[in-house]
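A quick aside before the break. I want you to see a complete sequence-to-structure record at least once, exactly as it would be stored in a machine-readable document. Don't worry about memorizing anything.
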Amino acid sequence: MPSQRIAKASSTLRKIISELIQDGIKDPRIGFVTVVTVKVSKDLRYAKVFVNILGTEQEKKASLKGLNSAAGFISSQIRKKVRMRYIPEISFKYDDSLDYALHIDKLLKQAKIK
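That is the input. The structure line, written in C-alpha cells, reads:
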C-alpha cells in the first residue's frame, strides 16, 4: 500500500507544480519548462522534481536556478491546494533524457546514411 500512496502523491505534486510553473511563477529567468516526473521519498518529506528546459545551456541553468529559488513559494502554494501531513521539501533537477534520446537518434540517422 505505501507504494500506491507515494505514486498518488507524486502524480498530484506533478500536476500542481506544472500548473504553478505555467501560471503562478513570474520569475523572468524561468523559460519554457516541462515537469517530466516527481520522485517522492518514502516518508513523503522530500520531492525531486525532474524538469526538461528548452533553450541554450545558459538559459537552462538560469531557469533551474529560478525554479530552485521559487521552491518555497511552490511549497506554500501546494500547502494551500493539498491536504497532506507533510509538504515535501522540493528540489528541482534537470532531466537530460530527452537530450540523450535526441543524440542517439542523430547517431542512428548518421549510421543509416553511411
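Two observations worth writing down. The CA atoms of residues 35 and 102 lie 18 Å apart. Helices lie at 2-24, 57-69, 71-81, 97-113. We'll return to this after the break.
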